[in-house]
Design a protein that fits this description.
Shape: globular
Number of strands: 22
Mean pLDDT: 97
Radius of gyration: 24 Å
Helix content: 25-40%
Bound molecules: 1-deoxynojirimycin
Number of helices: 15
Length: 547
Amino acid sequence: MKQSWWHDAVVYQIYPRSFMDSNNDGIGDIPGIISRLDYLKELGVDVLWLSPVFKSPMDDNGYDISDYDDIAPEFGTLADMDRLIEQAGQRGIRILLDLVVNHSSDEHPWFQQARQSKDNPYRDFYIWRQPRADGSPPNQLRAAFAGSAWELDEATGEYYLHLFSKKQPDLNWQNPNVRTEVYAMMNRWLDRGIAGFRMDVIEMLGKVPDQEVIVNGPDLHDILQEMHQQTLAGRDTLTVGETWAATTDIAKLYSNPERKELSMVFGFDHIRLSYHPQAGKWRPKPFDLVELKQVFAHWQTELAGEGWNSLFWNNHDLARSVSIYGDEGEYRLKSAKMLATVIHGMQGTPYIYQGEEIGMTNVRFDHLEDYQDIETRNHYAEKLVEGYNHDELMAAIHTHSRDNARTPMQWDDSEYAGFSQVTPWIKVNPNYRDINVQQDRHRQDSLFRHYQQLIRLRKSHEILVYGSFELLLPEHPTVFAYLRHYQNKTLLVVNSFARETVTVELPATWQNCSCETLITNDVVRTQLPETLQLSPYESFMVILNHQ
Ligand code: NOJ
């Protein structure tokens, strides 16, 4: 396989609003990120992906953009962004920005123009339809943040489409002028020195709203190839698409280098295992490890040589991984290390979400009012009407609300966790006195150091980057073990998801085999026994010596 710089890179995602507040207005900002670059350098990450920092009325915390070429004042200025690109660059760190072009803000000048009149030149930048005879919306499409996906514009008497909030009207990608404008904007940012984009809900660009087709529409891949041709071609970028509906076959369409679309996509099949299959995340269910292993193994083997995986447990929309897959109590650090090893041991580009490297957990606010997230609030209201009760909804929010990931980064045990000196825009997780960067850095068993070690291993062991994947013990209910093979070398990764000691039989070939431990959250092993005994959440990675 032709090698790319991002094959052995590790990406760190920053949610700027919650990372570091430099000017004490309670909101994180770009100068705050700059002030923490040495920390990120020390961790060893190669790329920072910033959730949107563009001008926005912040209906969806910046995923509603009113000016793609300017920075929201609460986050800083263009000069701050230039400084970030430069100062990160000096440390060998590249910057990815979030490309949110399925929709804009309703406060974007394009939409302001579009709603002026039916014959405004910008009208066709968005998706307008006549009401039905009884005045109701054109069809049954639902918005991701609850309610109909159609909003009536009183002045012109037509509905516009918004697949998210009504302040996020969908852009019309069938209009060549929209595409030209977006490509020009992408080029301006690339020329400014960023390394690429994370592409928000990119699978929606080919939608056919009249047929209620939202994702994976017929034109999607033509659009992405055109986008590539007009913006990325000839540049050495990293692009990653957010694609909840991607199967492995679809992921190959996006990420096969021959097709010239994206570097990789985020697949979410593993994440959905803790959502109710029909009712979704507001009806959480415990994940099943056998299914989780199947999903990962399927993505690993299917994409091998034909695409590229992105590897992650966390992002700004998801619960904290240690709260879902690990243990928040006695084994918090040990289970968090195990989860890190699972991800970093596979083939693909690993993503770390801010705070994951110190084992930040979900938050459990008692009152709905403490949740700021539009999705959480809207769904609470909608589900209550549908007959869910308050307690079950709060339990679901405690498990899967996006705000679990959005509480301020916990830097130290001072008031507001060292994130700010004033009350932050969202409350700090009350566990910040025990869980914070300063405290972790002082521990013998630091999680940060475990991540540092995993990142270094990826740079020094090609087998981690290019080795093929073989799942072991597929039916074992609590142990996730796999092999990686590369140029006559074999790497074994063993991870226990159990709170108790468990025993497993490795394949006969590897019993009594001598080995070299690359990383562990427990004992260093030099030899594998016939029957492997694993302590709670034990995890290790060893190079096996062929016998
Ligand atoms: C996906 C983003 O990750 C999420 O935070 C946002 O609300 C929606 N897309 C809409 O842009």
